[in-house]
Design a protein that fits this description.
Distance between the termini: 90 Å
Largest sheet: 5 strands, mixed
Order of helices and strands: HHHHHEEEHEHEHHHHHEEEEEE
Strand content: 15-25%
Number of strands: 11
Helix content: 25-40%
Structural class: alpha+beta
Length: about 375
Amino acid sequence: MTWQDAEARLDVSKSQLYNLRASWLANGKCCTSGVSGGDHKKSWPPEVIDFIQQVLKVDEEPNYSFIRDELKRCFEFSRSVLNIRDHVLKNMRKLLRESLARGPKPRRRWQRKGDGDLLQHDTSPHQWWPGDKLQILALTIDDATRIIVGAKFIDAETTFAHLAHVREIFQTHGLPNDFYTDGLSLFGHESRKAGDSNTLSQFQWALGCLGVSHLVAKDPQSKGKIERQFDFWQKRLPALFRLENVRTHAEANELLTEQINWYEQHHVSRSTGMTPRQAIEKNRLEGFDCWRKAPGESLLNLHLAVHHERVISMANQISFLGRQWDITPCASKRVFIVQQPDRFWVIASKPTPQTPQWPDILAQYRI
């Protein structure tokens, strides 16, 4: 008989039929079967079913890898992505929504070998949790290992916000060789090497004084790794934030930190074949650590700040923030303000990549 007839008469699958045939041939064309043990698959726990249903209700498009990770993290319930997908399609199809159209594929670019050699940085305004306006996630990853060196929801996309984000990375990890962003005017439209005085933005000037080169992507497809990261988190965090009833930046950042810790320990990159933690351990064992020691608090205050130029009045005062400020008399007619969110300094000359130390300080005020 044909295998189709045998499959129908024995009421087994094609693979099971051929397993029986192999056993029959191996035993001299003799095979005995016992009583069927029935369905050995255990029922899925109610709390697991309830969690999956809640995710499908709040998520725009089902992310089965996210569901798999959360089931393992929260319930210690392990199933493959395909197993979860089949279960959903079989038992919860009514909760599914239409799939969203996919965007353009990223452009491939050579990967750096050492961690700290290149950082990719970007922001994503998105409806991360319910609210009147979009929330902004600032994200920075290491190109070689996929370690997330900086991730935080910020209030607004300002120079102060980006400099504070970068400062935290430098203080925690050290200085990278290169910093890779898009061509947003805040960052600068063109790439600049470390030490280049001919810069287009204050962000580039700050990096240059610290010995960090700034590279600019020509289009979104050139930032494949960071764009994939945002795609990864956009398919996970909004659903999770709705489930956890997140409404503030503090709540979102706390949950984001937990998710990143899980990601770095368990998510295996298709490119490296390792988790980010495994990749960074391997890199450092092989001597490919490129991080450099960051300068102290004082120099970070000087460089990771917003600088303004002002003219000194006859009364040795400068105009700033809508009022007049007294400064120490000096020979120059122009001075520079080094502004941090809570204070500012008035200095006689602007620091450069060639002279990155503090010049003479003419005044200091808290705002």
